[in-house]
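Hello again, I could really use a second opinion on something today. For a while now I've been wondering how a particular protein folds. Please have a think about how the structure follows from the sequence. Here's the protein in full, and shout if anything looks odd to you:

***
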Amino acid sequence: MTIGIGMFITKMTAYFITGSVAIFSDAAESVVHVAATGMALFSIILSSKPADESHLYGHGNVEYFSAGVEGFLIVLAAGFIIYQAILDIIAGPTLESLSIGVIFISAAGVINLGLGYYLIRTGKKTSSLTLVADGKHVLTDAITSIGVIVGITLVIITDFVLLDPILAIIVALNILFTGYKLIRESIGGLMHETNPVILKNISDRLISIKKDYWIDIHELRYWQSGDRTFIDFHLLLPYYFTIEQSHTEEKRIDEELEKEFPNSQIKIHFDYCVPELCKFCGYYKCEVRKEEKTINFEWNVEKSSGKAVYKILD
């Protein structure tokens, strides 16, 4: 947040020196950045709190809300940039001391570029959507600065002052797209939208550790909250397995999934077989089998996340 305030002061200084609407718009985007950073800090502190009586699944979902607010603020900033640029086109830009403005904005852009990449890298390592969102916001600020620098440089070279507000609009459209993506990710997280890649990774991991007495896996689901992944599914086992055997199997599955999905919480609903399911079962050591296996099916993500095998193949 301190860096954001410093960037705002730097850009406003450049605006008062040059009168450039593009620089003013860049400064306006920095105001939004300061506000969004405050929201990000709050959400990181809150999401790191452990689960309690009123939030049994923890507080991680606040990060999706924070990212959505940040995306909304980015969209507002982009709209304001476009509005100011249009006003400047109508009135006619009045620019001066542009070389000094380029120096100020260049310094701010370099700092924001480094900070943005650092935040995104750290956010991905810690699975923090808030840090990633804040990093993307900082990068949009840096991109804005780069666009402003290019525009002002072209104005200096060509003396075509309308390039200043025109380029500001172009940069604002890019900012709008970034804001849209953040809002989209936020809504997806809050709605527990399924990522097909993650779901397939979970399914593939389960299939890789499958035992021959696993008759079927179905209704595989997951959702994420902060750095935690909640996974649940149904596992069909022979009816004569004891509670101890089932618990041992659950512990083994939990340990295997934890290797690929740290901080995961696994919930398994155990189903038991009946004689009519022997035709689906590949557990040939079974001593109570009523008939041979006659129906084969492919173990894949579509099957794992779908209905029980006897409901779709029988």
User: Anything to note?
Assistant: Residues 2-190 form a domain with the Alpha-lytic protease prodomain-like fold (CATH 1.20.1510.10). The mean pLDDT is 82. The chain is about 65% helix and 10% strand.
